[in-house]
Design a protein that fits this description.
The chain is mainly alpha-helical. 77% of the residues lie in helices and 0% in strands. It is built from 13 helices and no strands. The two termini are 29 Å apart.
Amino acid sequence: MIALGGSTVDRSKWKRKSIVTLALTVLTSSQAILIVWSKRAGKYEYSVTTANFLVEALKCALSLAALTRIWRNEGVTEDNRLSTSWDEVSVYPIPAALYLIKNLLQYYIFAYVDAPGYQILKNFNIISTGVLYRIILKKKLSEIQWAAFILLCAGCTTAQLNSNSDRVLQTPFEGWLMAIIMALLSGFAGVYTEAIIKKRPSRNINVQNFWLYVFGMVFNAMAILAQDFDAVMNKGFFHGYSLITVLMILNHALSGLAVSMVMKYADNIVKVYSTSVAMLLTAVVSVFLFGFHLSLAFFLGSTVVSISVYLHSIGKLQR
């Protein structure tokens, strides 16, 4: 009976992890497409800082709604109450600030890359996450996993090869630089957030999310004041918004919640690899929406990235 009960619990955890990871993959695959689609005549008609603020506000509201349901069904406990100490919440401004910069950069990088190219370069997150995972969380990565990281770099580079112009790579230097900075910011913020979340495993994930998103709202409000204050005051907060913009904001909010669920019930490495699979979905959809050309280099690079995903999963089982 004990063994049977343990097996049932394991199956339940596996099912929950699989659903969250699948949701994150689908949401991430559509993320780049919606950002590109939200442009008009090659530029953003809306303020990206207000869009980011609304993403954080929506995530905060969804976390609070989930908590309200829990309080109604289970009552308020030590692990799900919002009231807390400054020592507990003082760790959240760091990842909130890092995510702010990374989220703003993801809008501007599309001046240099298309949606499939963005998903390819986004895989550099895996490298930064793997290294920081080892440094911050003191968790050893197997030799197979390190080999998978090397293959990943090779795959990302191959997919960006351009045989139809004088440039060797499709993406210019500015695009690569922004991709690397975003990878470092995302990797550090992700691993740091995972360490915070798992420091107190019994703490309800929605409480932890709530405080992270509160600081996210504060920093994004500061970004609006610093970057778009005049535009917001003269044209309005929602100037330039369209249905695609609203869908993009909803997508970003749900993606953020899915990421935190993966961190709580799996780990950050699983998160970045689930988003890597989205690369293939983005490429296929972009063929129909934006006329993206699936070159041999992109196909080979995507194949190498997929092999690195498989090797990483094998290496994780052998740890």
